[in-house]
């Protein structure tokens, strides 16, 4: 199924904590005197990867505990980003948006602001890259019962860093916020105040919806004014909401391997990607978590070629959709298109 790997050029939905390698974790556990359950990379990998037949999204989310323990100091966060960027570059990616939740990195008294600064420092690694053009950062708010003030802080920080990026003309930085975490336990509707604040401050946002929860959560995200939807797989359950998504041209960040693992979709034959493309949805393909889902962006395209016979035309459309859906400026999108186009001509 080679011939499809070269479409793996952009990843818009990529969680930092779910994408650490076992080798990185072993090195940084030693540096920080943290004891891991095992020192064997293969055994560690199985502990931080969700099983292919995960019970649901909640079991999947449990795989993040060990990685998070290791990302509580600024130098670890910076290095984790550098390491991820090097891997993305080696894989031939041109553009990526890495996301993380600053509020989950405060166990050793790092502030949210320090966590964001540490991650932004890691972006400097792009300057040494051969293939990557740019990498930007999305700050995740978290679904939870008692963290509204922390989510508000995340949105205000995003605003602060977005303003700084614009006024200082920085090529890379924070571009948006997100809402992540257990969707079925904490429905999207509860987070209206966070997105009112984001709208008030002019902070663009994407939002995990239609993954563990149904099409109504996508409706909710659209009503809040989401610029993109994380996953959105279950929007097909309601024809009116699907029509609204298509009318508004709101892109979906689909993550095939992850969506199968969390049982959002039962099997490849039922994966709605082609259906959405044919209906005119601005669908994109992403990894979600390279380690937890044991994937990378080329692997996603190869799996789609193998299991749903993705065509070259469809693959090209997905890449164009990803450029369009990115949080880059129009000028940057044109530049990215120009960089990528020669790679898409050969089958
Ligand atoms: Zn995600």
Topology of this protein?
Blueprint: E1 10-15, H1 22-31, H2 41-48, H3 57-61, H4 65-69, H5 74-90, E2 95-100, H6 112-122, E3 134-142, H7 148-167, E4 174-180, H8 192-201, E5 206-209, H9 215-224, E6 228-231, H10 239-247, E7 252-254, H11 256-261, H12 273-279, E8 283-285, H13 297-308, H14 312-325, H15 330-340
Parallel strand pairs: 1-2, 2-3, 3-4, 5-6, 6-7, 7-8
The protein binds zinc ion.
Summary keywords:
15 helices, alpha/beta, four-stranded parallel β-sheet, 347 residues, 12% strand, binds zinc ion, globular
Short synopsis of the structure:
The protein is built from 15 helices and eight strands. It has helices spanning 22-31, 41-48, 57-61, 65-69, 74-90, 112-122, 148-167, 192-201, 215-224, 239-247, 256-261, 273-279, 297-308, 312-325, 330-340; strands at 10-15, 95-100, 134-142, 174-180, 206-209, 228-231, 252-254, 283-285. Strand 5 (206-209), helix 9 (215-224) and strand 6 (228-231) form a beta-alpha-beta unit.
Question: What report would you give on this structure?
Answer:
- By secondary structure, the protein is of the alpha/beta class.
- Helices cover 45% and strands 12% of the residues.
- The strands form two sheets. The chain has a four-stranded parallel β-sheet, with helices on both faces.
- Strand 6 (228-231), helix 10 (239-247) and strand 7 form a beta-alpha-beta unit.
- Helix 5 packs parallel to helix 6 (112-122), helix 7 runs parallel beside helix 8 (192-201) and helix 9 (215-224) runs parallel beside helix 10.
- The longest helix is centred in the middle third of the chain and has 20 residues, at 148-167.
- The radius of gyration is 19 Å and the shape is globular.
- The N and C termini lie close together (12 Å).
- 50% of the residues are buried.
- Zinc ion is lined by residues 13, 15, 180, 208, 230, 288.
């Amino acid at each position: 199924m080679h011939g499809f790997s070269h479409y793996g050029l952009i990843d818009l939905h990529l969680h930092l904590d779910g994408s650490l390698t076992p080798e990185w974790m072993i090195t940084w556990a030693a540096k920080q005197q943290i004891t891991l359950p095992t020192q064997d990379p293969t055994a560690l990998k199985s502990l931080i990867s969700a099983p292919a037949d995960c019970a649901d999204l909640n079991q999947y989310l449990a795989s993040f505990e060990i990685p998070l323990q290791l990302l509580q100091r600024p130098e670890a966060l910076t290095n984790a980003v550098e390491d991820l960027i090097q891997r993305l570059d080696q894989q031939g990616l041109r553009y990526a948006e890495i996301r993380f939740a600053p509020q989950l990195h405060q166990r050793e008294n790092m502030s949210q602001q320090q966590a964001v600064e540490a991650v932004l420092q890691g972006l400097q690694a792009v300057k040494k890259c051969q293939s990557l053009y740019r990498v930007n950062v999305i700050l995740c708010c978290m679904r939870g019962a008692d963290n509204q003030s922390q989510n508000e802080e995340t949105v205000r920080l995003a605003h602060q860093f977005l303003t700084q990026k614009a006024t200082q003309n920085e090529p890379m930085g924070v571009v948006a916020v997100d809402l992540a975490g257990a969707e079925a336990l904490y429905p999207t509707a509860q987070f209206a105040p966070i997105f009112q604040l984001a709208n008030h401050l002019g902070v663009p946002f994407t939002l995990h919806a239609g993954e563990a929860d149904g099409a109504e959560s996508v409706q909710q995200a659209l009503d809040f004014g989401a610029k993109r939807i994380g996953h959105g797989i279950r929007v097909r359950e309601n024809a009116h909401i699907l029509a609204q998504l298509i009318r508004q041209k709101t892109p979906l960040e689909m993550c095939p391997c992850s969506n199968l693992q969390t049982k959002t979709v039962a099997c490849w034959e039922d994966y709605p990607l082609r259906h959405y493309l044919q209906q005119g949805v601005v669908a994109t393909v992403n990894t979600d978590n390279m380690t937890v889902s044991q994937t990378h962006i080329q692997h996603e395209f190869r799996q789609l070629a193998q299991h749903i016979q993705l065509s070259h035309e469809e693959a090209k459309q997905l890449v164009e959709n990803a450029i369009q859906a990115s949080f880059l400026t129009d000028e940057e999108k044109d530049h990215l298109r120009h960089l990528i186009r020669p790679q898409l001509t050969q089958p």
